[in-house]
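FORM 12-B: Structure-to-Sequence Request
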């Protein structure tokens, strides 16, 4: 029963993690289709880059189930490095703005920077 519950939790988390980049991809694709003529070359380039990055992220996420299996067996080694959390938040806000969200965001840290050592893609 415990193993079954853990599997259900994993499926819930994986589903959520896959929906986010899929939503981003769809948002940019719809924007490009509906607003192509109104957008300039810079916007086209930025949106195509975001589509490419979103597809790359989906590819990385699709590889994570084997990572979970390796974790359970004690064979997983995360790629550690310095992660700038402030940059990650700024990227996420930029992604949301690129999809048309106009909400105001305010992020502050004590030192102006916020770093940790960890696996950046998994933190993201």
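FORM 12-B RESPONSE
SEQUENCE OUT:
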């Amino acid at each position: 029963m415990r193993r079954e519950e853990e599997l259900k939790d994993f499926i819930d988390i994986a589903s959520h993690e896959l929906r986010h980049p899929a939503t981003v991809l769809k948002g940019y694709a719809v924007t490009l289709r509906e607003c192509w003529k109104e957008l300039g070359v810079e916007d086209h380039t930025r949106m195509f880059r975001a589509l490419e990055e979103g597809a790359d992220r989906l590819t990385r996420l699709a590889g994570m189930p084997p990572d979970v299996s390796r974790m359970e067996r004690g064979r997983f080694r995360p790629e550690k490095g310095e992660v700038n959390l402030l940059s990650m938040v700024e990227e996420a806000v930029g992604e949301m703005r690129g999809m048309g969200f106009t909400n105001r965001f305010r992020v502050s840290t004590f030192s102006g920077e916020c770093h940790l050592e960890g696996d950046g893609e998994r933190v993201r």
